[in-house]
Amino acid sequence: MAVKSAKKTTQIKREPAPVRRKLQWPLTIPVEPYLRDHRFNGQVILSAVEILQRLAVSLQSHCPDAPVRRMQSASFERFLTIEEDCRVIEACHEAEIHENGRFRSRLTTVGPLPGKTVRRTKVHAVVDFVEPEPDRDPLPMDLASSLEGVVFDVPVLRLYEELVPFGPAYRSLTSLFLSESGALGRLLAPEYKASAPLGSPFPFDGALHAACAWGQRFRHIIAFPVGFEERTIFVPTKPGGAYICRVLPVATDGGELIFDIRIYAPDGALCEDIRGVVMKDVFGGRNKPPNWIGIGGGANGRHPADREDLLLARIRKQCRALSVIEIRAVADFADQALSPAEQARSEKMGRKRKASFVAGRLALKRLSRQLNGGDSSTPASGVHTIMPDGVRPRCPAPPGSEIFCSLSHDARFAVAAAVDEPVGIDVEQVSDRILKTRHLFMTDEEMALTERSPLGAAAASIRVWSVKEAVSKLMDRPLAESWHAVSVYVIGRHMSRLTVNGERYTAFHDAVDDHVFTLIKKAANL
């Protein structure tokens, strides 16, 4: 992805060690055809990842013992544009070797000032190559392998035609999901020759595309990378390889967007860890995202009035903690987040049932992290989410706290809720098929309510069914028993009222597309 000035970033300032040597080498970059697919606003731009590749190769060719797979304090100070008739970029690699073993590299070019004959040196990139350190604590697998919240599926064709308008060589994302918790994308590295020793540049570039799309949807700006705090390559990515990127927003409320990025192999092995990626609107607001990508946009965006539904705001307000996982936005290696007992149970399941089961465990583990102060250090397999009976869900909470939890899933969602009192939650997909079976679980009075409901018979009927499902979880009784014990006497879009064996309860509803979420609490405790 292209890069621009990083004059004011939040990167950590390190005290410079004394410089032992200063060196300078010519750096000739052939303009291979695929490089011309990296363009923006009609200009071909040498990508940040390509610059890092060239500097790493150059450094090792002159200093064979130099470490290059760990980088720090990278900044990209101005675009390196490539003219249409340019076949070779004549650049310079300026290096400083510090007493502590740090290698600071700069990519520079010399060119005339606009409209003048005076020539000046332009610094396009600065990066420190440093010695690797022992592996740090990895991101827990439940956080690495899934997104929290309702996701937005970005069509990759529109991504590369409208959001990140690059040519075919740089279209490495094959799928992309966004939620307020970040991005999860699947990548395929093109079969272009990789510059050793950093591996293929395309997965990292594709992960930056995912971060750019996140900024367009949730912050309404087109943000380009201007630097990063640290990048460590554990396993170089390969041309033709498939990868998964996980983009995590770190700080996004100011003028900069800061992300952490991880790139994984399909088996969950961590290939790259990039911390403190800084992205900014380098065009001063002159370029705007298309309407469809923003919340409230067209296509599969939604009206601003539906934002409370997207966030499940009404249900969330009734909970100590709530977690929603979309099954389609779960990485293939998510089963590595399971505890041994969870893993043993999942092995007996078919593919679809296992996918729902894993998504439910991920939701419960995230619920537990919320309850434990935003914990992000406990290994996912150390958060066990099944009660001793081997069936009912469990949400580990801080010692001494009495927390009740409930779990539900349908074909698209898994949802888990934690409340200070007995609670039941359910999610159901609205379908006209409910009309054929409602006589089995409804009273005549409930049937009449659904027929008169302004929601329509199917939407009203699914709320009644969902209420009774949620009550069965709250009461920990078979579903058929709740059919007779529950009487729904008000059906509303966002709230319904009911009795359970004569006691009053309230149901809270949120709807996302054609899915209805329902949470049940005792009315007296509201």
List the helices and strands and how they pair.
Layout: E1 19-30, E2 39-40, E3 43-45, H1 48-62, E4 70-75, E5 81-82, E6 88-98, E7 103-112, E8 119-129, H2 141-144, E9 152-153, H3 156-163, E10 173-179, E11 182-188, H4 202-218, E12 224-233, E13 242-251, E14 256-264, E15 270-280, H5 307-310, H6 313-316, E16 321-326, H7 340-346, H8 351-371, E17 404-409, E18 413-419, E19 424-429, H9 434-441, H10 444-452, H11 457-475, H12 479-485, E20 486-490, E21 495-500, E22 503-512, E23 515-522
Antiparallel strand pairs: 1-6, 2-3, 3-5, 4-8, 4-12, 6-7, 7-8, 9-10, 10-11, 11-13, 12-15, 13-14, 14-15, 16-18, 17-18, 19-23, 20-21, 21-22, 22-23
Helix pairs in contact: 9-11, 10-11, 11-12
- Our count of domains comes out at 3
- Taking the alpha carbons of the first and last residues, their distance comes to 51 Å
CATH class of the largest domain: Alpha Beta
Named CATH topology of the largest domain: Ribosomal Protein L22, Chain A
Strand content: 25-35%
Fraction in helix: 10-25%
How many helices in DSSP terms?
12
- Rg estimate, integer Å: 27 Å
CATH superfamily label of the largest domain: 4'-phosphopantetheinyl transferase domain
